[in-house]
C-alpha cells in the first residue's frame, strides 16, 4: 500500500490501494518540470539547465561539454531544433576576422522566436525586429532584454536564456526539457559528446571544420569567405610562453582556485593556450579568456570577486591622454546609441568636456 509507479512518459501514475487494487490517474508535468528518473524513481522533477559557452577566437564548449575551435567567418546556427523537433527558437551568430585571416571572433548574435527577431550587436546595441531599442525592453510576453552586469541578457519563458558580452562571448542556457532535441554548433545535448558534431543532414562527422561549415547560414547582406585558414602552430618557445601566461587559470592558490572543484579549468586553459598561439600572445585575448572562465564560474554559482587584481588584466587607475580626441577615438565607444553619451573602455573620465571630437558635451 502507498507504492506507486509512473509510466515512461509521465502521463499516467498508478498506486496500490488499500485493498490491493491498482488505482491509476492521469499525470502531467509542470512547465518547469521534466519526466526523468531521480533517486531510482521515475516522475516529474524540476528541470535542470545546460550551458553552451562561446568565447575567444572562438571556442565552443557544447551543452555536453565538448570543446571545439571552429574558425569560420560567416553566419552560423549555434542552436536550433533537430529534424522535426519544434523548439520554437533559433540562435545564430556572426564571426569576423580580427586582424588576421587565420582566426575569428564572435561579432553579433541573432535570436528568432515567436515572430520576434532580436539582434545583439557590438557594444551591447540591441535591435528588435530591425529597430534599435533602449534597455530594459520587453518586446513580447515572457521575453525580456536587459543589462545584467557586463552582459546583455535575453530571458524567455521558453526555457532559453542568452548572455552576450557585446564583443566575443556568448552563454546560451537551455532547460533540460530540450535534452535530445537540439542541434547546431552548440551540439546535440543528449548527455553524450559522441554525437555533438552532427550536421543538419543528421550525419555525425569527426572533423569540427566539416561540422561547423555545415551550419553556415547564407546572408546576402553579409558577404563572407567560408574558406578556413587554421592558425599556425606555436613554436616550442611560444607554446611555453603561452602555457606560462595561461597557468593562472590552473594555479593552486590563484584567483580561480575557488572554482576548480565546481568547474574544472582544463578546457579553458586549453582554449587560452590556443588563443595565445593564434594571436601572437595578445594580452587582450588573454584577458578575454580569463574573463570567460570567471563568467562560467559565476553561472555555476561561484563568484570570484575581483579576479583581475594584480594581473595584466587589472584596469588602469589613471586615464591615458597621450592621443588627440580630434583625430581618433582613443579607445572610446558610444555607451548608448540612442544618446550622445560616450564612455571609455578603461579608466574614469577625470574632467568634463573630454571625448571624441563628435561629442565634446558630456565627457
UniProtKB/TrEMBL annotation:
Residues 344-363 are annotated as: Disordered. GO terms for cellular component: extracellular matrix; extracellular space; membrane. SMART domains: C8, VWD. Pfam families: C8 (PF08742), MAM (PF00629), TILa (PF12714), VWD (PF00094). Residues 321-363 form the MAM domain. Keywords: Disulfide bond, Glycoprotein. Residues 50-225 form the VWFD domain. PANTHER family: EXTRACELLULAR MATRIX GLYCOPROTEIN RELATED, ZONADHESIN. This is ZAN protein. It comes from Picathartes gymnocephalus.
Amino acid at each position: 500500500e502507498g507504492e506507486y509507479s509512473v509510466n515512461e512518459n509521465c502521463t499516467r501514475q498508478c498506486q496500490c490501494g488499500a485493498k490491493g487494487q491498482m488505482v491509476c490517474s492521469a499525470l502531467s508535468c509542470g512547465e518547469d518540470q521534466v519526466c526523468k528518473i531521480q533517486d531510482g524513481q521515475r516522475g516529474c522533477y524540476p528541470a535542470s539547465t545546460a550551458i553552451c559557452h562561446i568565447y575567444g577566437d572562438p571556442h565552443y564548449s557544447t551543452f555536453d561539454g565538448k570543446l571545439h575551435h571552429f574558425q569560420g567567418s560567416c553566419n552560423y546556427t549555434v542552436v536550433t531544433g533537430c529534424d522535426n523537433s519544434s523548439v520554437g527558437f533559433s540562435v545564430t551568430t556572426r564571426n569576423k576576422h580580427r586582424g588576421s585571416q587565420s582566426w575569428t571572433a564572435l561579432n553579433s548574435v541573432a535570436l528568432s522566436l515567436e515572430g520576434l527577431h532580436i539582434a545583439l550587436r557590438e557594444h551591447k546595441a540591441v535591435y528588435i525586429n530591425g529597430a534599435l531599442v533602449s534597455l530594459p525592453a520587453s518586446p513580447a510576453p515572457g521575453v525580456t532584454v536587459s543589462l545584467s552586469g557586463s552582459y546583455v541578457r535575453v530571458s524567455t519563458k521558453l526555457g532559453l536564456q542568452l548572455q552576450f558580452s557585446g564583443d566575443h562571448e556568448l552563454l546560451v542556457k537551455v532547460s533540460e526539457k530540450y535534452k535530445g532535441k537540439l542541434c547546431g554548433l552548440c551540439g546535440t545535448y543528449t548527455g553524450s559528446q559522441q554525437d555533438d558534431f552532427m550536421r543538419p543532414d543528421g550525419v555525425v562527422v569527426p572533423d569540427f571544420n566539416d561540422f561547423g561549415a555545415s551550419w553556415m547560414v547564407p546572408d546576402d547582406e553579409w558577404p563572407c569567405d567560408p574558406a578556413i585558414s587554421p592558425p599556425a602552430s606555436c613554436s616550442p618557445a611560444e607554446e611555453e610562453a603561452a602555457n606560462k601566461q595561461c597557468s593562472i587559470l590552473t594555479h593552486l592558490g590563484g584567483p580561480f582556485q575557488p572554482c576548480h572543484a565546481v568547474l574544472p579549468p582544463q578546457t579553458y586553459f586549453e582554449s587560452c593556450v590556443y588563443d595565445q598561439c593564434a594571436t601572437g600572445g595578445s594580452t587582450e585575448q588573454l584577458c578575454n579568456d580569463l574573463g570567460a572562465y570567471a563568467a562560467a564560474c559565476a553561472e555555476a554559482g561561484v563568484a570570484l570577486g575581483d579576479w583581475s587584481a594584480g594581473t595584466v588584466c587589472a584596469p588602469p587607475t589613471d586615464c591615458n591622454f597621450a592621443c588627440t580626441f580630434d583625430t581618433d577615438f582613443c579607445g572610446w565607444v558610444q555607451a548608448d546609441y540612442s544618446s550622445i553619451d560616450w564612455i571609455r573602455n578603461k579608466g574614469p573620465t577625470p574632467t568634463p568636456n573630454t571625448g571624441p571630437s563628435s561629442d565634446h558635451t558630456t565627457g
